[in-house]
């Protein structure tokens, strides 16, 4: 991965990112905050401008590419993505999670996020169809079913 | 009525800028032309129906606004000037910039042949030497060349020129205001150079001070303090008889090392654009197109001589950066654009004439030459950049006969 950075006096900074096969992506960050993204098909070709973003938009796009905006799902097996784009996801309760010590009823995950908790993995045992009074503990792995949006909403309440 | 004059001025430059932009041309010639049209030398010579003779006079506000335009243009140049960056690439930039100095020599010879005296030749040399940072940078962005390898030698050469012009302007001011006798002006030049050295020391060691000055999150205060610093220092410099433009450049350089440099750029950029437009308008206002007839031959000569020389030096600058023939040709074509600094140099002569130390007729001639030359070169340079393809093919077929010589884009 070769990335070269150069200054453009009076304009800003230029980053040239080699993508392999001689193709390059060139990002020009203007002092004004404007970003321009160019594509260069081979070293002798001219750069073709592909996009232009404002500072705010560029940061958002950057975080999308980084995966901070939406975590791509890398299913261990094919079965985790159910027909219709429904996901089956495993979430471990991290230390300090606000859900620790709540019951399934008081945590109200279904109404708050739309994610249905179908099972809880605790150590070696699995509580399937856990009832509303089940108290969540640190280290529990919740197995939930929902749309990507439901999963995203749940990830937020998991750590907030 | 002064407020109405200023309103007419801003309306005129706004329209001129929009028209130039539509035509894909640089706005600078448009601002100058509209200033000329509305001034006493064009509009003032015609009696209009109903209102009689009306034109935009050179009010104190406009001439002061023009001065602020120079100050802010140079301030921004300093703000974006990074000495460490220059030193880091000093090899190729030094080579490219030194080759480019040949244009100064050409101007000196040209000026000497026409005027037969050192001082006007020295001013002509500066006018034809300095390429336009503003126009070239904007064209680079508009054409998308900014992402190509040709951007670096062009911007690098411009940085070298900027540093040269800072020293040059202080010497030129000293010579012009000192009465033009080189021997007698030696003291003034010494003072000017000492002043530069002093400013340089301030830049080198005064950064913490400048940092503290703008260490606030209040953008309004940042704008006020930065503007206060640059205008105050520039004004003081002028009062001491040294170049206000150079002082502004160094104040900008001092701020360039602070943490707030981006904020300063953001808040003062509109101020710079506004007053720079006033400066170009003012240049047009004080230029009598009737003088063009006298300098037309000189302008034509300068265009014919200094366009090819810039192409050649630019081409060699590109080669110094290891670019191939095609890209080096682009560097050469782009560097031909002259603009704001040539005009700032011409104002040195005008200032000298106003101060009574420089022959007013000669100042008028030099100013008319600079305006005519910039009008041609700004349009020509922008056009050459926009239609570079045929030149590139010709250059490649002539100079690249051995096929690709392997020196291509640096990956």
SSE topology:
The complex is a heterodimer of chains A (160) and B (411).
Chain A: E1 3-8, E2 12-20, E3 23-30, E4 35-40, E5 48-53, H1 55-66, E6 81-82, E7 86-92, H2 104-107, H3 109-113, E8 116-122, E9 125-128, E10 141-146, H4 148-159
Antiparallel strand pairs in A: 1-2, 2-3, 3-4, 4-5, 6-7, 7-10, 8-9, 8-10
Chain B: H1 2-22, H2 27-38, H3 60-79, H4 83-88, H5 90-100, H6 102-115, H7 118-129, H8 133-143, H9 151-177, H10 182-205, H11 207-213, H12 219-239, H13 244-256, H14 261-285, H15 292-320, H16 325-335, H17 340-354, H18 360-386, H19 388-399
Helix pairs in contact in B: 1-2, 2-14, 2-18, 3-13, 3-14, 5-9, 5-15, 6-7, 6-15, 7-9, 7-17, 7-18, 8-9, 8-18, 9-10, 9-17, 10-13, 12-13, 12-14, 15-16, 15-18, 16-18, 16-19, 17-18
Highlighted features:
heterodimer; A: 160 residues; alpha+beta; five-stranded antiparallel β-sheet; 10 strands; B: 411 residues; mainly alpha; 19 helices; disordered C terminus
- Main structural class of chain A: alpha+beta
What composes the largest sheet of chain B? none
Count of distinct strands of chain A: 10
Number of extended strands of chain B: 0
Could you please describe the fold and organization of this structure?
Chain B: Keywords: Membrane, Transmembrane, Transmembrane helix, Transport. The complex is a heterodimer of chains A (about 160) and B (about 400). Chain A has four helices and ten strands. Chain A has helices at about 55-65, 105, 110-115, 150-160, and strands spanning about 5-10, 10-20, 25-30, 35-40, 50-55, 80, 85-90, 115-120, 125-130, 140-145. The longest helix of chain A has 12 residues, at about 55-65. By secondary structure, chain B is an all-alpha fold. Chain B is built from 19 helices and no strands. Chain B has helices at about 1-20, 25-40, 60-80, 85-90, 90-100, 100-115, 120-130, 135-145, 150-175, 180-205, 205-215, 220-240, 245-255, 260-285, 290-320, 325-335, 340-355, 360-385, 390-400. In chain B, helix 5 (about 90-100) packs across helix 9 (about 150-175). The chains are: A alpha+beta (about 160), B mainly alpha (about 400).
């Amino acid at each position: 991965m070769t990335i070269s950075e150069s200054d453009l006096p009076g304009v800003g900074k230029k980053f040239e990112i080699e993508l392999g096969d001689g193709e390059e992506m060139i990002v020009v960050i203007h002092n004004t905050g404007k970003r321009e993204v160019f594509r260069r098909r081979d070293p002798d070709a001219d750069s073709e401008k592909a996009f232009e973003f404002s500072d705010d938009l560029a940061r958002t796009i950057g975080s999308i590419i980084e995966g901070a905006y939406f975590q791509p799902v890398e299913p261990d097996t094919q079965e985790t993505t159910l027909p219709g784009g429904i996901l089956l996801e495993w979430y471990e309760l991290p230390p300090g999670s606000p859900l620790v010590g709540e019951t399934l009823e008081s945590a109200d995950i279904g109404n708050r996020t739309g994610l249905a908790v179908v099972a809880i993995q605790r150590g070696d045992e699995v509580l399937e169809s856990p009832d509303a009074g089940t108290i969540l503990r640190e280290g529990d792995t919740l197995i939930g079913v929902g749309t990507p949006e439901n999963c995203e909403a749940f990830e937020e309440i998991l750590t907030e | 009525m002064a407020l109405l004059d200023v309103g007419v001025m801003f309306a005129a430059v706004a329209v001129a800028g929009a028209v130039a932009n539509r035509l894909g041309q640089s706005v600078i010639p448009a601002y100058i032309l509209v200033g000329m049209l509305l001034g006493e030398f064009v509009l003032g010579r015609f009696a209009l129906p109903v209102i009689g003779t009306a034109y935009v006079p050179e009010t104190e506000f406009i001439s002061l606004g023009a001065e602020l335009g120079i100050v802010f243009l140079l301030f921004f140049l300093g703000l974006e000037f990074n000495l460490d960056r220059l030193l880091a690439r000093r090899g190729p930039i030094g080579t490219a910039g030194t080759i480019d100095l040949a244009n100064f020599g050409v101007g000196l010879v040209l000026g000497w042949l026409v005027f037969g005296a050192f001082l006007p030749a020295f001013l002509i040399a500066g006018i034809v030497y300095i390429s336009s940072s503003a126009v070239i940078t904007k064209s680079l962005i508009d054409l998308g060349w900014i992402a190509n390898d040709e951007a670096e030698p062009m911007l690098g050469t411009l940085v070298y020129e900027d540093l040269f012009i800072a020293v040059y302007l202080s010497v030129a001011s000293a010579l012009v205001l000192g009465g033009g006798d080189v021997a007698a002006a030696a003291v003034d030049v010494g003072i000017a150079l000492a002043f530069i050295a002093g400013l340089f020391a301030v830049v080198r060691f005064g950064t913490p001070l400048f940092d503290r000055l703008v260490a606030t999150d209040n953008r309004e205060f940042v704008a006020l303090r930065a503007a206060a610093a640059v205008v105050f220092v520039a004004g003081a410099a002028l009062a001491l008889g040294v170049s206000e433009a150079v002082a502004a450049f160094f104040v900008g350089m001092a701020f360039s090392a602070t943490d707030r440099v981006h904020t300063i750029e953001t808040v003062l950029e509109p101020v710079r654009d506004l007053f720079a437009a006033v400066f170009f308008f003012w240049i047009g206002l004080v230029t009598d197109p009737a003088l063009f007839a006298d300098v037309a031959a000189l302008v034509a000569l300068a265009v014919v001589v200094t366009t090819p020389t810039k192409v050649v030096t630019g081409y060699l600058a590109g080669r110094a950066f290891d670019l191939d023939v095609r890209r080096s040709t682009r560097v050469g074509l782009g560097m031909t654009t002259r603009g704001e600094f040539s005009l700032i140099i011409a104002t040195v002569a005008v200032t000298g004439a106003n101060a009574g130390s420089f022959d007013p007729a000669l100042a008028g001639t030099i100013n008319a030459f600079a305006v005519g030359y910039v009008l041609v070169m700004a349009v020509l340079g922008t056009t050459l950049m926009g239609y570079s393809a045929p030149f590139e093919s010709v250059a490649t077929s002539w100079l690249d006969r051995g096929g690709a010589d392997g020196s291509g884009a640096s990956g």
